[in-house]
Amino acid sequence: MGRFAVLVIDMIRDFTDMEHGKVPNEPASKMVPTVVQFVEDARQQGALIIWVVDSHRPGKPDWELENVRDHCRADTIGVELAPPLQPQPQDYLINKRRYSAFVGTDLDLILRDNHIDTLFLAGTKTNVCIRATAQDAFSNNYRVIVPRECVATDKPHLHEANLEDIDRYLGRVTSVEDALAWMASAQTETTPHA
Q: Total domain count for the chain?
């Protein structure tokens, strides 16, 4: 069994700050403490943590922004991680300008450099960036696991439909408890015996 990483996708203020965010959604806002705890527990299990931030260049052409509402402009508070989420020195931080964390980034190279074969996805929105990243992860031969309590979107029916599709076609949707149990099991299998 190989190594594993947690991708924390778009847990930033434009999506989570109900007062100041440009496109906040309440489920993402309420999920912040759950993601904080999951990241902390996953880190203790040896997970590589990768923070993925939707960040668009102000005043420059941007295909995504031509198709959706203005959001996540670089150099604004909107692209700051939702407090109290905080990268540690050993973590990676990746900026993206498309829905998938793989498109136009060096995510795949980072994963291969770190011998990662399993990705745990957390963040928002289930039906957009989580789904797009799950699809590309699957297409690039990564095992995909989505802890249900760590993803959210503003439309419950799309949340459920996309989780069903991810579980059926792209990976596994589990509870946080089962995700952490998988990590503990993986650590046991890769730890040399004395």
A: 1
Q: What CATH number is given to the structural domain containing 143?
A: 3.40.50.850
- Could you tell me which of 49, 54, 55 has the C-alpha nearest to residue 119? 49
Report yes or no on whether pTM surpasses 0.85.
yes
Q: Are 106 and 94 in contact (CB under 8 A)?
A: yes
Q: Show Cβ contacts of residue 128 under 8 Å, excluding neighbours closer than 6 positions.
A: 99, 153
Give me the amino acid identity at 162.
Answer: N
**Of the candidates 51, 50, 40, the residue with the CA atom closest to the CA atom of residue 5:** 50
Average pLDDT of adjacent 10-residue blocks, the chain of 194 residues:
88 93 93 98 97 82 65 80 96 95 97 98 97 98 98 97 98 98 83 45
